[in-house]
Amino acid sequence: MRNPLIASRLFNIPLMVLPDKLDAVIFGLQERIGIHVEDAPEPSMYLTQSGERREPGYQVIDGVAVIEVFGGLAHRGGLQADSSYILGYQTIARRLTAALEDSGVHTVLMVLDSPGGEVSGVFSLAEQIYNARGTKRIVAAVSDMACSAGYLIASACGEVYASETACLGSIGVVMRHVDQSKRIEKMGMTITHIFMGDHKVDGNPFEPLPEDVRARYQNVCIKLYTMFTQRVALYLGMDVQAVINTQAAVYVGDESLNVGLANGVESTDETISRLISERGGAGSRQTITGMETSTMSTEKKEPKAGQVTKPAATAAASEPTTTSEVVEQPAAATEQPAAVTSDVQADVPDGAALERTRIKTIMSSDHAKGREEQASHLAYETEMSADAAIKVLASGVSAVKPAGNKLDKVMANTQQPDVGAEGGEQAEMSDSARILSDLNASRGIKKQGAQS
User: What burial class does residue 180 get, using C-beta atoms within 10 Å of its C-beta: 0-12 exposed, 13-18 middle, 19+ buried?
Assistant: First the structure.
């Protein structure tokens, strides 16, 4: 094996990836761990609309920053394993940061086509996305896969739209061990381990996996699965049990609506067009009365069947208010003067009125009867549109508020399996880093920078 370090990232380590995809990667690398770097696919492969390309690797279409998340996902670097592209979480994070700091961007769209990947790094990226939701609107478009770690990223966006054939879910954890002892014996070879520390060679591929080692690995998977399901519940405002009930199943298209994993079904191009129109982007006539401009539309955009959109008040909540406005007029409308008058401004409903209407619609819905507590949570403590909230109520999927709306409080209410020591320096580690540190410790691997 020419690259044992690559193999160590596939075997005896928990992964958040579709098992079939893991099999494909392993098959491609089975005889030789052959890796070579190639350029990432162009965004035009996933979109028919085009926009200005900006570094470090996203494009902007009328104020919508499009960030592609495709292929297998890993903690660092972009690799090419056989025919499977491996995208680094840090690369996605850099693109997200740049888009958030871009003054020409009002919405970030994460376009996903990924079966998932490594655990290391994905929880940090998901938290970055979740925490940025108050800065700019962040939306996920699944075209055509967001599974396992890919779905964690999608859920962190808060709004998830899937194409008709998109695959979503696989909310679970998988770990593989390869026993090559019979192959080694057939080759007439004997492998001898010389080591100190009872767990130094746990999980080695030259002998069957002992039951006690298997049990420890299973506990690691359980703990990571608990983190995974609780994060998805937190990001989407769902009940944890509703996420667990999916049992890592994969849902296609509108099936994802029934279990609360998506807000609507539409193509990526439709999502982009809608996000632009909601901000009065493409084709709008700009009337500038000051140094800053904003946009609004005098035309009501009716959502398509099955499409759920955020209320205008929510979509614009993070945007600063300016003293000058830009009005988009229908093609046949009379041209307006250069300055926007107070009469025009008076016709635009304020955010408070829209929010009152949204709350009233949810609370007075027939589906809210008998589910008043859940309806109250959806109305007052989430940003769901009225249509989306009513669909959740109608589906019977619970959406109670996680305690304190903080992951640490959610984790505190759930029994965790005991996987290694968690004191001392580990108290300052992130949950995922601590779990992987425990796993490495059980295998006799010291922290990075120490000699093993």
Answer: middle
Domains contained in the chain, number: 1
Answer whether residue 448 shows pLDDT above 90.
no
Structure tokens at 15: 């992964």
Confidence of residue 376 (pLDDT cuts 50, 70, 90): confident
Please give the structure tokens belonging to residue 50: 């085009």
Q: For 79, left (φ over 0), alpha (ψ -120 to 50), or beta?
A: beta
User: Which structural domain range is residue 28 located in?
Assistant: 1-295+305-330+346-355
Q: Report the distance separating Cα 429 and Cα 107, nearest Å.
A: 32
Do the domain assignments include residue 68?
Answer: yes
> Catalytic one among 120, 148, 267, 442?
148
Residue type, 445: I
Q: Rounded CA gap, 169 and 114, in Å?
A: 11
Question: Which CATH number fits the domain that encloses residue 69?
Answer: 3.90.226.10
Query: Is 313 a member of any domain?
Result: yes
Highest mean pLDDT among 47-61, 154-168, 189-203, 289-303: 154-168
Residues 6+ apart with CB under 8 A from 80: 35, 36, 37, 38, 86
* R_g over Cα of the chain: 25
Task: Give whichever of 34-48, 290-304, 320-334, 389-403 has the largest mean pLDDT.
Answer: 389-403
Q: Say if CB 265 and CB 164 are below 8 A apart.
A: yes
- Which residues are CB-neighbours of 63 under 8 A, at least 6 positions away? 104, 105, 106, 107, 276, 279, 281
Q: Are 47 and 271 in contact (CB under 8 A)?
A: no
C-alpha dist (Å) from residue 229 to 155, 171, 239, 275 = 11, 7, 10, 29
| CA–CA gap between residue 444 and residue 196 (Å, rounded) | 9
pLDDT digits (tens, 9 = 90+) for 71-93: 889 887 655 544 456 889 999 99
Match 């492998």 to its residue by tokens. Answer: 191
- Is residue 148 annotated as part of the catalytic site, yes or no? yes
- Strand 64-74 to 15-17 pairing: unpaired
In whole angstroms, what is the distance from residue 395 CA to residue 447 CA? 47
The verdict on residue 251 lying in a domain is yes
CA–chain centroid gap for 162, Å, is 13
Angle (CA) 202 208 212, round 5°: 50
With DSSP H G I counted as helix, E B as strand and the rest as coil, what are the percentages for the chain, rounded to 5? 40, 15, 45
Write the pLDDT tens digit of every residue in 175-195: 988 898 998 889 999 989 999
Q: What is the largest CA-CA distance in the chain?
A: 90
